[in-house]
Prior knowledge:
- Strands 1, 2, 3, 6, 7, 8, 9 and 10 form an eight-stranded mixed beta sheet that branches.
- By secondary structure, this protein is of the alpha+beta class.
- It is elongated, with a radius of gyration of 30 Å.
- It has three domains: 10-220, no CATH class; 321-509, Rossmann fold (3-Layer(aba) Sandwich), CATH 3.40.50; 513-632, no CATH class.
- Helices cover 37% and strands 16% of the residues.
- Helix 17 (526-539) packs antiparallel against helix 21.
- Strand 15 (392-394) and strand 16 (401-403) form a beta hairpin.
Amino acid sequence: xxxxxxxxxxxxxxxxxxxxxxxxxxxxxxxxxxxxxxxxxxxxxxxxxxxxxxxxxxxxxxxxxxxxxxxxxxxxxxxxxxxxxxxxxxxxxxxxxxxxxxxxxxxxxxxxxxxxxxxxxxxxxxxxxxxxxxxxxxxxxxxxxxxxxxxxxxxxxxxxxxxxxxxxxxxxxxxxxxxxxxxxxxxxxxxxxxxxxxxxxxxxxxxxxxxxxxxxxxxxxxxxxxxxxxxxxxxxxxxxxxxxxxxxxxxxxxxxxxxxxxxxxxxxxxxxxxxxxxxxxxxxxxxxxxxxxxxxxxxxxxxxxxxxxxxxxxxxxxxxxxxxxxxxxxxxxxxxxxxxxxxxxxxxxxxxxxxxxxxxxxxxxxxxxxxxxxxxxxxxxxxxxxxxxxxxxxxxxxxxxxxxxxxxxxxxxxxxxxxxxxxxxxxxxxxxxxxxxxxxxxxxxxxxxxxxxxxxxxxxxxxxxxxxxxxxxxxxxxxxxxxxxxxxxxxxxxxxxxxxxxxxxxxxxxxxxxxxxxxxxxxxxxxxxxxxxxxxxxxxxxxxxxxxxxxxxxxxxxxxxxxxxxxxxxxxxxxxxxxxxxxxxxxxxxxxxxxxxxxxxxxxxxxxxxxxxxxxxxxxxxxxxxxxxxxxxx
Length: 634
């Protein structure tokens, strides 16, 4: 996992609901209070007067601090100890009230309860597990316990527990606090809280600017560290060494990795380099080494390197080195590692994600194959019912097998592997894999593909042989073959069976709206980005997201705005109505959908005045839902 904070955004973490305002005192009657901590912890610690709660001192007047436990913080701070320094940190919890605390069951509103401007994060290794103490600058914190302002859902920063909020979401959150305080309402936990809030609110914009500069500088430094560097590793002893410089050195990716996280991209590149034949040379001695790699230290004597361990079945890599950096930059190191590992352990990789997230685009970028000589796209039809739909059928008259383009692709892969000695990877991409049940038409091949022994990877051609090759009765499924499938999870598709999932690797793709805009090179006004982010945030629980495809639609529409006589806000209004709201289904009196309805109503209040088409549609939905009617757009 890699910590990825967009400069200018704030951080947010959840803390447990606290009866005493997180002021350093233990909650009264803790066993009767639901704070979402484990009841056994409340009984064994809080009820016995032990101050082991991670959040008890969050707003303590003596020494405010919050503790992040190891699972939530090690993936960040062991690699980047200063990742939180000078950042704005928002605290949120689930809405609670006396006398029981957080309401059990149903949907729970997430409310902001305070914020820090973080000064430091210190690792506490005094216990059997490492904890991380987050401290604010003196006086640079605020407590909002009684104000009940909803917290935006935010975005991932690459791992668990911590999320990030867009700058505008943070500013609107504080606007909401001020709105709640209008009319002289006394909602402060203590008189000092009001003074701290006024200072925090006044400095917030400036602090966010400083935080953005610090985050950008750290990101730049991290990118520099992530650049692969060449170092030379030499053996000790005597003996012949085939190859020149490549035989006494290897490329090692020295990017900083979290503890325990392998960089499979680096190992894949090393395997690729190791499997490349080197030119023959004579024996090298220490003088030759120094000439080839000056400055490597004391003279050493060359020795033969052990033969590299080849991948299973000597399979070529699915993700070719030319495209690994793009995949890492676009979809993250975790997904790149999942693809590299999955292609070594499974015969099928499933790319899962919302429509338009870039599943097909990623699949086409796995191989460096611009002419599509080694890639075949197979669109799956909802009418497929058996293997003949994928492979072909036996003609009822002459009993010759009529092969599909898929089968011809398998034949070419076999020929390349056995005759042409072309060991490069071949890729089949199944589009909309679960539009029809794959168990009906792909299971026979799946069983064969699991075998490692070549004699067990034979598919016997039905009938009297291929029409084009009458004497061909068997087909070797080349070890160079890889299968990647794109899948959706909506109501139009078939669920995949445990039997198939056990033979596949599932890689889930997500892409934030800002990244989608960056992918197509589209820049919007700040308020437009805020409207887009907030709508995306409201609809993601329904599986609806602003995607690369949506970005392309918006880009093309903006290019035509003068011809259409529309301004950029009108274009955005149309695209959001069609691309996002046009896919919504809401059910009256469904608690989950009621929460989505509230979020959409809040979005309408914030942005509806500039997006009238969306606003009118949401108002009509509200009226229908209030009368018990469901909303089904399509």
